[in-house]
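Thread: quick sanity check before group meeting

JM: Hey all, I'm pulling together slides for Thursday and realized we never actually wrote out the predicted structure for the chain we discussed last week. Dropping the sequence here so it's in one place. If anyone has concerns about the input, flag it before I start.
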Amino acid sequence: MTVLPDSHYQLIAALFSRLLGVIYLIAFLSISTQIEGLAGSQGILPFADKLAWLNAEGDLTRWFRVPTLFWLNASDAALTGVAIAGILVSLLIIADHLTRPALVAAFVFYLSLYQAGALFMNFQWDGLLLEAGFLALFLTPRSRVVILLFRWLLFRLRFSSGLSKLTMHDPSWANLTALDYYFEVQPLPTPLAWYAHQLPEWLLRTGTLGTLAVELLVPFMMFLPRRWRFTAAWITILWQVLIILTSNHNWFNFLTIILCLFLFDDRALRNTLPARFLDALQPATPVRPVKFLLLRPTATAALATVVLLASGAHFRELVTQQPASGIAGGLLDYTEAWRVVNKYHVFPNMTTQRIELELSGSRDGVHWKTYRFKYRPGDPKKRPSVVLPFQPRLDWEMWFVTLSPKYLPWFQRFLQTLLDGSTAVTALLADNPFAGDPPRYIRVQAWRYRFSSPERREQTGQWWQREALGPFTPVPMLEKSGSDADDG
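JM (edit): ok, ran it. Output follows.
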């Protein structure tokens, strides 16, 4: 690995910390308006119920397996309160005020919300934010090992994404047709995704090959001399910008770009950014290691050892497609529970068709009204939305329901909350056609969506074409049970 001069990363460390604060701010703002509907007492998957079940087990390791502040209080007010507290400490990080304690608090608050959000927050960008936030606790301009660990994090993120496309043996990546489908089938495309989908086939094939090259070859340049690193950084940044233009992947790509800072040095920043801006990054007082935050070399070495061992186990799992066992398995259990080392594999399998579920409610079984999601395709004439850098968690999770039966339990619970008339849940939708008087029945219809051709869009104004597939077989209809149904 490249030897890093001690004095060349003060501006890099300062700029990264403040930009990390911006990402934390976006993440906390995004979840603050959703957490009650996802994990509150009337939410889809109430977190208090899970904690009560874990408490009933009586296993003392539960506090380490599910690290969260909500062991103390998991009420709706506590869930929202932690998100708001996260917003406040994010502002402190951005302002470079009490930065180290604020970074600790941001990590603890977001980890707590991550545990509460369960599958709604079990995304790679949530893990990436927590892993980057954890490393930031140890970052100083002279912490050469930590700077290398940030490069290692960026390497793992990019290389694992490419490696997974090979080890999963997905035919669309093997025959270079992945981008023929990607823009259309991704969870939440932007309007520019429609235009990208119309590109010539040869260009889409070239883009697929380019993606594999950027993910499999470019990451190795991150540990070469500075000009090679700079080239790797700019290629990575370019690819992230292209994704940002066509995909609503919240802050994921922005955080990846920020991690590219560690491929540069202070001299590169001075040659690129205005002097006035760089002067503002200089701390008022020198950054000093804080002993109780374990910034000594021995502790940093221990941190590097854990990260390297855990990430090595992740690579082994990715290559062999077998879960780690024994000591390695135990290490991964805890590093993943605390999200300090994570797995990364972006779109290793490309689905080739887009199936959307339409939910309708009725009080009499004859007249039906449709629930509308805020950002998922519905009306074929509705232009795809731009919601980044925020993430609508319910809209995202709906994308997975038709892909695997393991997502059906939460989906059925979601339908039940609609029958119950949960206002916390219906607030996550574009509107509630049964406000104040929930339906007795919920039915689920499946539709196949495709981007319209340019000719059809010009004639009809439709961004999408859709084809009815009939009832969604796993859960075609749900009826309210008990006295409430009798009253209806």
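AS: nice. The first helix runs from residue 10 to 32. Strands lie at 354-362, 369-370, 441-451, 464-471, 477-479.
JM: adding both to the slides.
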